[in-house]
Design brief:
Layout lengths: L3 E5 L6 H10 L3 E5 L10 E4 L5 H10 L2 H10 L4 E4 L1 H4 L2 E4 L5 E2 L4 E7 L13 E9 L12 E8 L1 E5 L4 E7 L1 E9 L2 E4 L7 H13 L1
Parallel strand pairs: 1-2, 1-3, 3-4, 4-13, 5-7
Antiparallel strand pairs: 5-6, 7-10, 8-9, 8-11, 11-12, 12-13
Length: 206
Amino acid sequence: MSKKVAIVDYNMGNLASVKNGLLKVGADAQIVKDGDELKNFDKILLPGVGAFKDAIVHLEKNGLKEAILEFAKSGKPLLGICLGMQLLFNKSYEFGEHKGLGLIEGEVIPFDKTKFPHRLKIPHMGWNELFVKKESPLFKSLPKAFYLYFVHSYHAVCDDKYAIGKTIYGYEFVSAVQKDNIFGLQPHPEKSHENGLTILKNFMEI
């Protein structure tokens, strides 16, 4: 029997493409809005595209924040992608300062354009390499560097002990994290063809 994964619906992002990606790797994936339901699942995927503040407000207003924190304590795997990864940290400086879920120590900051070559633009959008910095079940059977699809203007800053992958855009930044059962991925695996599907498959096997 395939393990059940809840895709958390908090009105941020293309849930259908995430669900389709999970279905392609044989997952029993369901879109869930009710925090009370999350405990019935084996895994959580926290997707998201958009503004950090709007996301955290919606999670709090709908009782999803507490349910996600309880799920994380259970030891079951949780994966945040794109904005979903950024929400895992203590805070973000996107349009002000906003508290995150605090599941991984760190913060989310804008790209520092003063460090960029002239031609680079914000957002960081398109295919770029993720360099594996630490072994993780998320990267099983993938090479030490591989391409994934990115769309973001902010990035995480955290202790290297949590950084399992980094990417270079103007400068090196953290693009994948892991703390125990909590995983985060800045790029979009659901838009990243075979490499992305491998990551989703790996997540379902954790």
